[in-house]
Design a protein that fits this description.
Length: 162
């Protein structure tokens, strides 16, 4: 999967590329406290956030393990919604439009659990991405911490001269 640097979801990108995205929801907790995620979305460290862990597959092949934290206003997001659609499509259906994001992309080795989920060897390289997305009013709408199989995922960037 080649992904341009745009504010889209992996689900949408896979769908647009003609691949068949599927999702396994590994965990859905409507009240998870995580100080780092809360800081990323501008909430108090003790604020319970909606936590979602998903395994995204492309044409039946595991591609990414995705961890997302959402503000408490999304506590009613259901497992069925997350299985059937991408997170950004779900947010858009509620009138929330991601407009801009701050994103950090790195590389790291797969943990034992990630390797098992992604069907790779422990220690195999992963592309890691952390993203905080904001709406038009500058309010954070989600924080994501995702890892992708490096043998099946690439990021394309267009660079301009200033």
């Amino acid at each position: 999967m080649h992904r341009r640097v745009e504010l889209t979801s992996l689900y949408d990108d896979l769908d647009a590329a003609g691949q068949s995205p599927t999702t396994e929801v590994l965990e859905l907790d409507p009240a998870r406290v995580n100080a780092a995620a809360a800081a990323a979305i501008g909430a108090d460290a003790s604020t319970p956030l909606v936590y979602v862990e998903r395994l995204r597959l492309a044409d039946g092949r595991p591609l990414a393990v995705m961890h997302n934290w959402l503000p408490p206003t999304y506590a009613d997001v259901s497992k069925d919604q997350l299985v059937g659609d991408g997170l950004y499509r779900i947010l858009r259906s509620r009138g929330v439009q991601p407009q801009v994001a701050k994103q950090r992309i790195t590389a790291r080795s797969a943990s034992q659990r990630e390797a098992r989920l992604l069907k790779i060897r422990r220690g195999q390289p992963l592309i890691a991405m952390q993203r905080t997305a904001y709406d038009a009013d500058g309010q954070a709408i989600e924080f994501g911490d995702h890892v992708y199989r490096a043998d099946g995922y690439a990021i394309e960037v267009t660079v301009f001269d200033r």
